[in-house]
Each structure stands twice: as structure tokens, then as C-alpha cells.
Amino acid sequence: MLICADPSLAMADTELDSLVLGLIAKLKEDEARDAFAEYARWTRTRDRKCDLDDKDNVPLQELSSSAGCLAEYISQKTAEIIAAKGDPRRVFGRHVSSSLPDADGVDLCVAQIHSANTCNDFLRVSRVFEIDSEVTEQSALVTAEIEMIVLSPFALCSPVASSCTGMCWNDKPGQAKPSWVTREGFSVARKLRIEKAFAFQKTDSGWRCNTPALQPVDFGVAVSGP
Q1: Are residues 62 and 109 in the same domain?
Q2: What's this model's pTM, rounded to 2 decimal places?
Q3: Which of 114, 117, 104 minimizes the C-alpha distance to 144?
Q4: Which of 7, 59, 111, 147 is deepest in the core (most CB within 10 A)?
């Protein structure tokens, strides 16, 4: 990745990571778990902003134009954490709305749904990709694809499946089970991909997601392989 190939970016990213871990260490277990999830969301937001999303295998020379954006983003986040003066609650858990109804807003919305349903023990969001949007002055509908990685096995049709992925993933009776299904359900490290429309409402502080749950999704597919 570009950060690893650039010594100055790697050093700045390591410093940011150290500052973040120091703040999270001050939180209780549940709060710390949500903070780690928020930190991961920062990375996804950064990659979308700097045009690095889903480009892990792209030649480095094609990513050089993103270096300045990365440096600016890391510097901004580092300054934000230093300004918090050791108080993690001045950094984490503060945002309930987004500046725009877009992929970043959907990412925040999914994070809020997952936190409310204690999904972070079972799934980690790896990618959010905006497909379409319909925006008016006061409301918006954003259709996005969300990719999640299984961290711990759970049944294909269960409260975890419904609350955390938005659907039951029943395999058809009489057919051989897909490779991504184990006796317990989904196997660890498998990827799940869903497509869903998220409703937003304009407020004084930004755009607030009005979608309280993932279910029902518009489309879902399991992807074999890590």
C-alpha cells in the first residue's frame, strides 16, 4: 500500500495509530470496541476521500497522486487527537450526523446500527461503496453496497444475521452447501456483501440517517474467500 511505501507517510501513520491506541486504552470494554470500529471507519473514509478505496493491488505509481491527500488527512486527525488532551470522549462517539448524504454517511449509519445490535463481535465492515443517490433540499435516499467480513461464526438465519446483515442467508434444501457455510453457519474471514437504500434527513447539524435497521436489504450475496 502507498503508506507502507512512503517512509514519511508510514511514520506519520504510526504516530497517529499510537495516539489512537493510547486514547482507546482509557475507555471501558464496550466503549473501546466502538472506538476501534470508529477508527476503522476513519480509514475507510480516508481511502474514499483519497481515491484509494479497493485499490490494494494497484501498482504504486498509479497511487502517487493520493500521497498529498493522505498526508493531509493523517495530519488533520493527529491534530484532532492532540487537541483532545487525553480525553477519548472528545474524539470518539461524538458524530451522529454526516456532512453529506453519501458513502461516508452510510458508513456512519451502518456503524450506528451495528453498535446498537452488538454486531462488532461477529462482523467488521470492510468497504462501503455508493451506487446511487436521490437528494432533495431536506431529504435523501442513498443506495450503497456494504461489504462485511465475518469475525466469528453465526447461523445463516439468526438474530445476528437479520440484525447485522439485514437478511437470512438460507441455503436451498437438497443442494450441496456452499463453501462459505460451516456447521455453525458462516465461516470466519468470509465476505458478505449487501445492497441497501438508506434514508437521510437534513438537520441543523448535518444529514442524519433515518434508517434504524439493515433489514430488509435490497440484495445480498455471500462471497467465498477472504
Answers
A1: no
A2: 0.87
A3: 104
A4: 111
In Å, what is the CA distance from 102 to each residue of 66, 94, 127?
Answer: 20, 19, 13
Q: How many domains does the chain have?
A: 2
What is the amino acid identity at position 207?
W
Amino acid at 66: S
Q: What single DSSP character describes residue 193?
A: E
The residue to which cell 470508529 is assigned: 38
Chain length of the chain = 226
Domain ranges, residue 142: 103-223
Question: Is residue 55 in a domain?
Answer: yes
27 in a structural domain: yes
Q: Tell me how far apart the terminal alpha carbons of the chain are, to the nearest angstrom.
A: 18
Q: Is residue 98 part of a domain?
A: no
**Per-residue cell: 149:** 467480513
Radius of gyration of the chain (CA): 18
Q: What is the mean pLDDT of each run of 10 residues along the chain (226 residues)?
A: 74 95 94 93 93 72 80 95 95 89 97 93 94 97 96 90 89 58 77 95 95 88 66
